[in-house]
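Bumping with the actual sequence this time:
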Amino acid sequence: MPAPMLRRVHLIIGIAAIVAFLLSGQQLGHHHPAMEQLPPELRMMYVSRHIYLLAGALVNTVLGLYLQLQTSRWRRVLQIIGSILILTSVLALSMAFLAEPPLGMAGRGWRSLLGMVALFVGVMTHLVASAGVRRIDTTR
């Protein structure tokens, strides 16, 4: 996959996830009963899933702005694998926000776990792929 296409996909998913984050914030603000009236563990479930979604949105947006695929084949393959994980994390984290909080602490499920692990492993894969690469500074 060419770098510009992968960057575009990350940017589109990142912006869509930012919109989802803003909409989920509106949902929290207009929740009935009010968030302040919910038990602390239930409120924590909503807020944590909301913040998880923001994390996935921001990582995708930044990759959409700055991703440069490496010239080395093995590094490029690692970056693409990492990108796939990071892209799928947003879907899992969106599903987690919608499905898990109403169940309270019992709602801690596979969606948020899958989303956060995919986000973490994807970022670490990009880190390994870029470690030790010589960069040419083009700034003045």
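The tokens above came from a reply further down the thread. The radius of gyration is 17 Å.
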